[in-house]
Amino acid sequence: MKNKNRELAAELAVGALVALIFAGLAVFTIAISGKNLFRKNVFQIETVMPDAMGLRPNDPVIAKGTTVGSVTKVFYDRDGVHVQAQLEAPVEFHEGYEITVVSTSILGGRQLVLKEGDENSPVVEDVRHLVGRRPSDLMEDATEAVARVREFLETDALTNLYTFSESLKVLGLRLENGEGTLGRLLSSDDEMYTNLNAAVANIKLISDRLEKGEGTLGRLLSSDDEMYTNLNAAVADARDAIADLKSIAARLEAGEGTLGRLLSSDDEMYTNLNAAVANIKLISDRLEKGEGTLGKLLSSDDELYRNVNGTVTDARELLDDMREANTLSTFTSLLLSGF
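and the corresponding C-alpha cells:
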C-alpha cells in the first residue's frame, strides 16, 4: 500500500514538473513572439513601401523613440511590400507622416519607425492603407560610397590632387619666405605692421573728429539740429519745386498756354506757324532774287545804289548852295544896315 502511494506521488510530481515545463515554454514563446494575449486594446495598421530591407514579423515598431507594437506580417505584392503591424498604443497619423525601416545595428536587426507628422495637419483616418518611403540601408550606402571613391581614384583626379598638393606646398614656401602681400603680412618684418598701425590710428583720429562734430560730415553726424533744419528746409523747397514742375507739366499736357498749345495735338497753331514760315521763305526767296525795292538793295545790281547815291550827292550840293546863299544874304543885310 505504501509502495503504491509512493508511486502515485512520484507520478504526480513528474506530471506537475512536465506541466510546469510546458507552461514555461508557452510563456517563453509568447514573450519571444511579442504577443500579448491579455491586452484587449490592439490597433492594426498596414503600410506599403518600395523596399522592406529585410523586415521580419515580430520586429519592433517604434514611435517617438519607444516601442509601441510589433510587425505581424510582411508580404510582397505588385504595388510594393505590404507590412502589417499591431500597435499597443493608438498612434495618430497626420498628413506629412513618414514610415520607414531603420537598421538597429550593422550586424542586423530592423525596426519599423513611425513619424506621426505635424499635429496641426489633418488626421489620416485610413490607417490600413498607409504609404511608407524607401529605407536607407547603411551597408548599401557604404558600398555605394566605396564604389564612388574607387571610380574617383580610377580617373585623373588623383593626379590633379597631387598637382594641387604640390601647388599648395609651393604656396606655403612662398608664404614662409615672406613673398607677396600675404607673405609679408605673415613675415617678421614690422614695416607693414607699422603702416597698418598708423592707418588704424588715422582712422581712429577721423572717427574721434566725427564724434566731436568737426567738419561737414561731423556736423551731419552730430546732434546739432541747425544743419538738419537747413537740409530739411532745402528738401521742402525741392519738394515744392517738384510740385510746381508737376503742375507745369500737367498744364503743358493739358495744352494750356502758348508752349502747351505748341506741345498739344492741336494742329491749328502748327498750321499757322507752318504758313508763317512758308511766307518768310517766300519773302527770303524774293529778296534773294532781287525782287522789290529791298531786294534790289540787297542784290548785286548797283544801279539803284548809284541812283540813290547820286540823289544823296545832289541833295548835299543843294544844301551847300542854300547855306552859301543864306550866308551872302546875311552879310549884305548887315552891310546895308550900316548906311
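(Above: one complete record from the training split.) The chain has a mean pLDDT of 78.
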